[in-house]
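WARN retry 2 of 3 for item q-0093 after timeout on previous attempt; input resubmitted unchanged.
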Amino acid sequence: MIQDIRYAIRMLIKNRGFSLVVVLTLALGIGANAALFSVVNGVLLNPLPFSEPDQLVTILQSKPNFDMGAVPYPNFLDLQSQNQTFESMAIFRSTGFSLIGSGEPERVRGRFVSGDFFKVLKLKPELGRVFTADDDKPGSTPVAIIGADLWARKFASSPEILHQSITLDDKSYAVVGVTPHSFNLFSGDVFVPINQWGTRALKNRGAALGLRGVGRLKPGVTIEQADADLDRIMANLAITYPDTNKDNSAKLVGLKSLLLDGIGSTLWILLGAVGFVLLIACVNVSNLMLARSTGRTREFAIRAALGAARSRLLRQSLVESVLLSLIGGVLGLVIATWGTKFALAALPTTLPRASEIALDTRVVLFTAVVSLITGILTGLVPALKTSQWRFNETLKETGRGANTGRVRTQGVFVAVEMALALVLLVGAGLMVRTLSALWKVNPGFRSDNVTTFGLSLPPAARNSSADESRTTLRQISDRVSAIPGVKSASFTVGATPLQNEDDLFFWIEGEPKPAGHQDMHMALFYTVEPGYLDAMGITLKRGRFFNNQDDDRAKPVAVIDEALAGKYFGETDPIGKRINLEGNDVPSEIVGVVGHVKQFGLDADHQQTLQAQLYLPFRALPDSEVEGFGGAGVVLRSQGGNAQVFNAVRQVIREQNSQNIISNVQTLDEVVASSLGTQRFSLSLLTAFASVALLLAALGIYGVISYLVGQRGRELGIRIALGASRGNIFRLVLVHGMKMTLVGVVVGVVAALGLTHLLTKMLFGVSATDPLTFVSIVGILTLTALLACYLPARRATKIDPLIALKNE
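OK item q-0093 returned
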């Protein structure tokens, strides 16, 4: 074996050009696979960075309109105290805090968590301690745990942070711990015990408040057993509290499954697609090695005549191909480093565990195994062909006629390349059609020249009276609307399109008053100012939208969308009708109907059962909600030049109060693009894979036809000498190439019809067997093959019969 390796190295050095082409081809295929496997490994295969992660589950509540809804805090307490299957259980909620007094004021990501949160995860802090049960009692001393990133950014990773306090909103918290850098699945800069949240709604069994539970199962307990256990408790709660818990049940999902949120199937499909690229590279290299073996027929014949067994010749060929593949694998790891950076740049920003993607030991081992298998696959057919030659006849040969069996094998290789390339091209084509269809979807608003951001008022504002808060908000609203270039602007509270949902219960006047929540209707609600409709570009269907007179002193009014109007009023005109909102004593009159907004995504909105949407006037918020108002979202439409206009907006807001904090600034176009992140990621990678596949397939057919022309030089020279026209020779070569192409196209179409159904969940507005896509891709592939055959065919027409025969 050592002798074979040494000889293989000498042969590869001697044929540098051939070796370089093979290594680069394999490195491209292996590197692409290693790069995507590193993504799959980091996101899907690596266990969660917690102790015994398989025991961790997310606790949700299934309810009408929401299969995986939030859990009201009183329900959670009952589940926590009455269950028999959980070792421990905690609850958490995402929020935001204004961090004041530690440098420049900023808005930081926060989480309210129950006292057992870190105990459930068995998380050891980087510094200090985790929360205790006493920390999470009402009236206890305010404490907080900060994230490692915030610790480094604001406090220079100083251990003295444990002797300091931080001001969040208008409240001082003693820092008792720092989470480790690896703790990024529950992203947050600050963690605060949930009972420090000063909202009365926390005790309301009908208020979900975006709360989710996380639990650790007892050893040996399955999710199904725990689900049944919690359903038992929920059934008892439905009897005890029918107005809030009727028809509700528990919903358990493995923590890892919930965090991946459907991205798993997409990544596996993409890994399979990049595997096709490697197969095409293998076929291409096999073709090159088969062609190269032609020049070594006499070498192998002489070796056989001198006593070399056919098994030794077979092993020698495999050693050379494996050596080439291993060199390609090493170079592929370098390419994978670049490819991983590209993949991370193309990944959706919401992809979980993106920070864990790296070229670790598992990726290196994967690359080594793939390289070894690739070397065997690429060298096997050429080696077998070599071992089947009749060496006695080879030594007697003086001519250069083409070996029919070898040409046939190469033709099969080309057909396989074409088939694999067609499958990838069809997949990329379907994703192009999907993204094109999604961009054409009317979201119910116009995203051009619209900027959204969050505005947090200073801590002092939280002690303001309702009248003072209203005055402050109107001042900001009027000053922002008066900025040159701002066409319209609005504060927003509640749901925001494509970003977050908020709902409320209602019933229509004239209907019997429902006994509880479960008998009421539900709608998404948006609390907005009069400028919201123009700022968002939402269509007014009938009636009117809000004006400045629709405030807290006017009679309550509401605007509904066409989905709510169609579902609850049918053909009846809803204008002038009144609806009762839960918690309001006076019904609201419907004054307008607007177009439906695709709240849940351009591709997923129609899949949601909750479609009804309701708009309420921001200026009519009751005193209880305006008093100590902390902040809201802002949406504004400019006349162009968003950045320049926003700089003026930022200046005006800071002039109003230097401690006002602007956060999460993004254009509405960016919001829409972000909602399509998974589709854009899939399209980027599939297009890259398909382009490489098309290039390799074109090179493959070009190489085979060029080889064929070289091997058939004597035959073609005789044809020309006997009167064949240049056109006949051109067609002869071209037809041979197109036969291989058409065989590959037919096989590829059949394979694509069988495989594209795997993409069904990723497609929108196009079927997995879309005829236009298939016809277009077949045309592109055929045209590419035609161009690849053109140069060898043209060269064949220039063969001089005298020179060809003389060379023989």
